[in-house]
Write a structure and sequence with these properties.
About 30% of the residues lie in helices and about 10% in strands. The chain is an alpha+beta fold. The termini are far apart.
Length: about 140
């Protein structure tokens, strides 16, 4: 009986020690304000480019939201955007629409820690080559 009591105390101690892990929310840095605004500008450029509402495409990208929790966005522990997965943005909802997105690459220059940018399967205007893409030297 004595051994059972020790095991019971040890079990409670273990539970007590693990409780903060499950109860306390994980600490994540807030997104950098300049980068949040740049993400919203990217969404606005999509809205300006197409004749219909793109909100179904990026519903979590809202003015009052925490951008590190937005879909298609990954941040590091300091709150800087490190990955943007904008692959196939338009055709996910509008399969038969092939309008060109006059993407302004300068919008991406606000992301100092951006390491991965996926713009594949989008109909992007060919002037993208001369708009400063080479200045995104941190992309891998």
């Amino acid at each position: 009986m004595k051994d059972w009591c020790l095991d019971k105390r040890q079990s409670w101690l273990l539970i007590f020690m693990m409780l903060p892990y499950f109860v306390v929310p994980r600490i994540q840095a807030l997104c950098v304000e300049e980068e949040r605004k740049a993400l919203l500008a990217i969404k606005a450029s999509l809205n300006d480019s197409y004749t219909y509402d793109v909100n179904p495409l990026l519903p979590t990208w809202v003015n009052h939201g925490e951008c590190c929790e937005w879909e298609r966005v990954k941040c590091d522990t300091t709150g800087h955007v490190t990955e943007l997965a904008l692959k196939n943005v338009i055709s996910i909802v509008y399969e038969d629409y092939h309008r060109v997105w006059p993407l302004n690459i300068s919008l991406f220059l606000h992301f100092n820690e951006l390491r991965s940018l996926n713009l594949s399967w989008n109909y992007i205007d060919n002037t993208i080559i001369t708009t400063g893409l080479e200045r995104l030297s941190s992309l891998k």
